[in-house]
């Protein structure tokens, strides 16, 4: 796609939605879409932060949105339609509570499922309803945790695995003018990662795999999916193959957990965070 986003059938500009767009990966995606010429609507549960981010990056609007509310997606789609023909919808909003299933509260389980999975499903529905005859792209922020067993992130990983599965199914359901993608990054340096349980199993495993990704790296790869036929992209790519192997032989993951956790503890120790 050209650096300036405009409809092939008219001079009307194209609009884009980024949920969870006030900070982190969402903000990085929104910045790049603005640079490409889209009229971007930054949506976030923190309405003040969404408005501030929109002003700072030159987006068309910044509005409050709770992705658990299906009707809120329709309101965001209507806002995007005010600024241009809806062409891109990025379901980025998510929460990252870590912990073994036995340690995870009912509230945390519901939050992970409602925000990560239902929020993405409602967003895809709104995008499919909002795209015009020219179609568009849906980009769902999933996770490498959605491709393999991840002890210490059981419910989070399950919610992300469901996003990957739904992405593939919707991609197969829709006409070719609509493209549906999932970006599956390894650990990314965000406030979500910083908020993990210090020394918890999930945090140790995330830090066992080498370098933590930057927001810019993930945002670049997410936006590069727009216009492409690629459905699932892992970041970095080689980790996707390793993760899928782990999914085929989960017993190997179970036996390797102690070793990987020790590697993560050493890595965090070098950073002074163990």
TrEMBL record:
GO terms for biological process: fatty acid elongation. SUPFAM superfamilies: NAD(P)-binding Rossmann-fold domains. GO terms for molecular function: oxidoreductase activity, acting on the CH-OH group of donors, NAD or NADP as acceptor. It holds the Pfam family adh_short. It comes from the Bacteria. InterPro entries: NAD(P)-bd_dom_sf (IPR036291), SDR_fam (IPR002347). Signal peptide: none annotated. Gene3D superfamilies: NAD(P)-binding Rossmann-like Domain. Belongs to the short-chain dehydrogenases/reductases (SDR) family. This is SDR family NAD(P)-dependent oxidoreductase.
């Amino acid at each position: 796609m050209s650096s300036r986003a405009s409809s092939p059938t008219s001079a009307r500009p194209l609009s884009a939605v980024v949920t969870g767009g006030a900070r982190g990966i969402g903000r990085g995606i929104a910045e790049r879409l603005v640079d490409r010429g889209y009229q971007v609507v930054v949506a976030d549960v923190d309405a003040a932060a969404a408005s501030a981010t929109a002003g700072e990056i030159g987006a068309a609007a910044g509005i409050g949105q709770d992705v658990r509310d299906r009707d809120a997606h329709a309101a965001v789609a209507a806002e995007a339609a005010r600024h241009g023909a809806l062409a891109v919808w990025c379901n980025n909003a998510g929460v990252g509570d870590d912990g073994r299933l036995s340690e995870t509260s009912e509230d945390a389980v519901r939050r992970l499922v409602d925000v990560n999975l239902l929020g993405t499903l409602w967003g895809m529905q709104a995008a499919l309803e909002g795209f015009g005859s020219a179609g568009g792209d849906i980009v769902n922020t999933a996770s490498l945790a959605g491709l393999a067993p991840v002890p210490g992130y059981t419910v989070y990983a399950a919610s992300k695995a469901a996003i990957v599965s739904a992405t593939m199914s919707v991609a197969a359901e829709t006409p070719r003018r609509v493209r549906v993608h999932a970006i599956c990054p390894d650990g990314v340096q965000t406030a979500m990662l910083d908020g993990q349980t210090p020394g918890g199993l999930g945090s140790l495993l995330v830090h066992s795999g080498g370098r933590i990704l930057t927001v810019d790296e993930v945002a670049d790869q997410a936006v590069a999916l727009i216009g492409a036929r690629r459905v699932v992209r892992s970041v970095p790519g080689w980790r996707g193959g390793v993760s899928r192997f782990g999914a085929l032989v989960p017993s190997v993951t179970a036996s390797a957990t102690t070793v990987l956790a020790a590697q993560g503890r050493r890595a965090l120790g070098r950073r002074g965070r163990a």
